[in-house]
Amino acid sequence: MIKHNEVNRSFDCNPNLTDSQVLEFCHNGFLVLEGVVDNETNQLTCAYLNGEVPSNPSFVPEGFTNEDLDRIRNSHEPSTLLLEGWFIENVLLNSQLAGALRSLLGKNVGLPVLVSKHTTECPSPAQGWHHDADHIFGPELNFLEVFYYPQDTPEEMGPTEVVPGAHITRTHRKMEDKGVSAAGPAGTLSIHSQSILHRKGESTATGTRHMLKYDYWRTVSPQRDWIVEPAFDFQKAHYGHHGIARYIAHMFYWLCGKGEEYRIIGGQGWPWSSVNQIGPSYGFAKTEGYLPNWRKNNLDDYAS
């Protein structure tokens, strides 16, 4: 059951991700939920964006006039959509999305205050690869970006492409390089770390492709209060390979509320491991050592 606090615009519910799934998000930086919004809501969203249905806000924010709301609706940031009761209930508080956000952002998740409209007339070329403005690389996960596709968005309609793992450091790719597509049926919601490298894919079909982007926010300190797997082993879990594992493990530890405890000794020490080693990696649970160099200002890629 989703508890919606209309006063401070937040929600709470039961988490639906496990330890392994949270760690997988730390690895990839994104999660796609295909076709989870119902068709009636998808059609109503498209009609709203096309100006075919009138506004009916569930409330008017303090200090706003009807003229303000009209201006916002007709801009590239139609955030009045966030005031529509049907959109709040069926999109912002979608049960599958809410459970994943609750797992990654903790209790009392803050609802979006701004929506960006990315509407494309197809066919169109691919966008250049980019990290969004004001991105930050670090273990913290204080907000998450969601993309919503209210119409069928196959490859031919140019869905967003992302580069898995490109949320932990600045990444460069050529225009001809491909990524992982977020293609899906109408009602697909895609959760991203805001720092992940991405772009609008090339579209070859004819028609209008809508996509909405908005952020959810952490309001509490992180802790491991998603679905805990009794057999999950912090020491033996796979965090990645050389140059990567230290960052993935740091992000996972931060989400568990253990960021201040996290230290690494380098080399072949934990959290790095190989399937060919005959014992556990040394360095697990060390209280002294180094941190990953998120700022990239040391040649050895470690920070003190």
What topology emerges from the helices and strands here?
Layout: E1 3-5, E2 10-12, H1 19-28, E3 30-33, H2 39-49, H3 66-73, H4 85-92, H5 95-105, E4 109-110, E5 115-117, E6 120-124, E7 143-149, E8 160-162, E9 180-181, E10 188-192, E11 198-200, E12 203-209, E13 212-217, H6 245-255, E14 291-292, E15 302-303
Antiparallel strand pairs: 1-2, 2-4, 3-10, 5-13, 6-12, 7-10, 7-13, 8-9, 8-11, 14-15
Helix pairs in contact: 1-6
What keywords describe this structure?
304 residues, alpha+beta, Jelly Rolls, 5-stranded antiparallel β-sheet, 3-stranded antiparallel β-sheet, 15 strands
In words, what does this structure look like?
Helix content is 19%, strand content 19%. It is an alpha+beta fold. The chain folds into 2 domains: 3-217, Sandwich (Jelly Rolls), CATH 2.60.120; 231-304, no CATH class. The strands form 5 sheets. Strands 3-10-7-13-5 form a 5-stranded antiparallel β-sheet. Strands 1-2-4 form a 3-stranded antiparallel β-sheet. It is globular, with a radius of gyration of 21 Å. The mean pLDDT is 96.
